[in-house]
Amino acid sequence: MENPILKVSNLTVAFGKEIVIDNLDFEIQKGDVLAVIGPNGAGKTTLFKALLGMIPYRGTVAWAAGVRIGYVPQRMEIETDVPLTVYEFLALRQSAGFSREKAEEAVASVLLPKEILNSGLGSVSVGQRQRILIAWALLGKPSVLLFDEPTADIDIRGQESIYQLLHHLQDKYNFTVILISHDLNIVYKYAEQVLCLNRQKICFGPPAEVLSPEQMQHLYGGEHAFYHHLGQHGHQH
Q1: Where are the alpha helices (DSSP H) in 59-206?
Q2: For residues 11 and 59, is the Cβ–Cβ distance under 8 A?
Q3: pTM for the full predicted model
Q4: Which of 112, 41, 47, 119 is nearest to 86 (CA)?
Q5: What is the distance between the alpha carbons of residues 134 and 177, in angstroms, rounded to a whole number?
Q6: Number of domains composing the chain
Q7: Are 182 and 9 in contact (CB under 8 A)?
Q8: Do 153 and 235 share a structural domain?
Q9: pLDDT tens, N- to C-terminus, the chain (237 residues)
Q10: 80 CB neighbour count, 10 Å cutoff
Q11: 193 SS3 class
Q12: Which residues contact 140 (CB under 8 A, 6 or more apart)?
């Protein structure tokens, strides 16, 4: 097997005396899609912050040499009434050598019309804004994309179109994807590997092999929580 694009060893994150991630190990190969699942408070977003070097941690996060990381947050982290057009927002990401042509290519890559560049950032829909965040990340020509619940605020139809877009982009650019998701259908459909996280690693591997009812009960805290979770998301594969 080739060298992994990411190898995490003995990763521990604590805030004061509270251990949020405890002794986590996993690795991911180039071009794979890894889904991170687990209940609220399991440490999923904390894991992303550690992978991005945004918070202190113990252990090792080893990215392959030359990796460029793109990050798409769960939602826009700036006020949406900021008087910025979509074009001006994208220009903030890549001010040196940025051009109208690059902006048009960026929005075309996420299947948005070039006319959206003239729209105010606060006037576009939530789904369009999420695509614009993906375009922003793509401007950095990443080899790895991290998505923190990329469809958290989007309706069901919009969610499916976002994941279809990610699949299309991964086929086109062959980057590695690590995403946090609560939707088991998406995990089965798009992910080669799944990391079940509840402060510790509960399971890791191909979804069809590791997402047994027993593991899901362990992950989500008992039978009732497990069936409630499946009832929300319609477990199929």
Answers
A1: 86-93, 100-109, 126-138, 156-173, 184-190
A2: yes
A3: 0.85
A4: 119
A5: 12
A6: 2
A7: no
A8: yes
A9: 578 999 999 999 999 999 999 999 999 999 999 999 999 889 999 999 999 999 999 999 999 999 999 998 876 656 667 789 999 999 988 767 889 999 999 999 999 999 999 999 888 888 888 899 999 999 888 999 998 876 666 666 666 777 788 888 888 888 999 999 888 888 888 899 999 999 999 999 999 999 988 888 888 875 444 444 444 444 443
A10: 14
A11: strand
A12: 68, 70, 93, 94
Contacts of 12 (CB under 8 A, 6+ apart): 19, 21, 22, 23, 24, 57, 58, 59
Q: Range of 187's domain? A: 1-68+144-237
Burial of 224 (0-12, 13-18, 19+ CB in 10 A): exposed
Residue 157: HSE in the Cβ half-sphere, 13 Å Cα cutoff: 0
Helices 86-93/100-109 angle, 10° precision: 100
Biggest CA pair distance of the chain: 55
Pairwise CA distance, residues 176 & 31, whole Å: 4
Residue 127 sits in the same domain as residue 207 = no
